[in-house]
Design goal:
It is a single chain. This protein is α+β, with helices and mostly antiparallel strands and 214 residues long. Among the domains are: 14-109, Fertility Inhibition Protein O, Chain: A, Domain 1, CATH 1.10.1710; 172-213, SH3 type barrels, CATH 2.30.30. Helices cover 38% and strands 17% of the residues. It contains six helices and seven strands, in the order H-H-H-H-H-E-E-H-E-E-E-E-E. It has helices at 2-9, 14-24, 42-49, 58-69, 72-77, 97-132; strands at residues 83-85, 91-94, 173-178, 181-191, 194-199, 204-208, 212-213. The protein has a five-stranded antiparallel beta sheet with strand order 6-5-4-3-7, with no helix packed on it. Strand 3 (173-178) and strand 4 (181-191) form a beta hairpin. Helix 2 packs across helix 4 (58-69). GO terms for molecular function: RNA strand annealing activity; RNA strand-exchange activity. Residues 9-123 form the ProQ/FinO domain. RNA chaperone with significant RNA binding, RNA strand exchange and RNA duplexing activities. Residues 123-153 are annotated as: Disordered. It is found in: Cytoplasm.
């Protein structure tokens, strides 16, 4: 009976796991505002500290930790002079320059992707609004000859943008690039860079994140 109760308590949502980490390790994981760089190898410390905790699994912890360290506010905190900290908030060494440069590059790329996504969304909204404001076509006068059949207008193109791994979650609807046309489906599982998607056709496929479109 205890095993069943533990399984029902296990956290699966990444946001819920992050909230649990904020509460359990408040000196390490900062819920709001500027964060501090984490100790290298912190995941192993975290897994050992929570080894007897039935609420989280190592897989879910890894996903939550990846989302935390890829957030903009975390990447902004990886800067010169900053000290890495452990689970108890204790300083454990300064950052290396290559880690600072990597964080700055990752932040820049993430912000550029977000900007491109916003622009694409705004462009699609403007195109849709413009199409809705087109004046109604004049009715042609009646003729003795049958009028030609109207040509069906092509369906508006769907603007899809590349997915960002840390923004994906289970049960999210996405499009998978298979061949020329994207195929709709739902995310079943996320493991590192691989995303398992169940297509609307019923087929389940495992693809890299670069093949996922939103």
């Amino acid at each position: 009976m205890e095993v069943m109760m533990e399984s029902t308590e296990k956290l699966t949502d990444t946001n819920a796991i992050l909230a649990y980490l904020y509460e359990t390790f408040p000196l390490c994981f900062i819920a709001e505002g500027e964060t501090k760089p984490l100790k290298i190898g912190l995941f192993q410390d975290l897994a050992e500290r929570l080894a007897d905790d039935s609420k989280v699994s190592k897989t879910q912890l890894r996903i939550a930790l990846r989302r935390y360290t890829s957030s903009w506010r975390y990447l902004k905190g990886v800067k010169a002079g900053a000290q890495r900290i452990d689970l108890d908030g204790q300083a454990c060494g300064e950052l290396e320059q290559e880690h600072i440069e990597h964080a700055q590059l990752t932040l820049k790329e993430s912000q550029e992707k977000a900007k491109a996504k916003r622009i694409a969304k705004a462009t699609a909204a403007k195109a849709s609004e413009k199409a809705s404001k087109k004046p109604a076509k004049k009715v042609a006068p009646k003729r003795t000859k049958p009028a030609p059949k109207p040509v069906k207008e092509a369906a508006p193109a769907v603007n899809l943008t590349p997915a960002v791994l840390n923004e994906l979650k289970q049960n999210q609807r996405v499009n998978v690039k298979l061949g020329k046309s994207p195929v709709a489906g739902v995310i079943v599982d996320i493991k590192k860079e691989d995303v398992q998607v169940q297509l609307d056709s019923g087929l389940t496929v495992k693809v890299r994140v670069e093949h996922i479109m939103l």
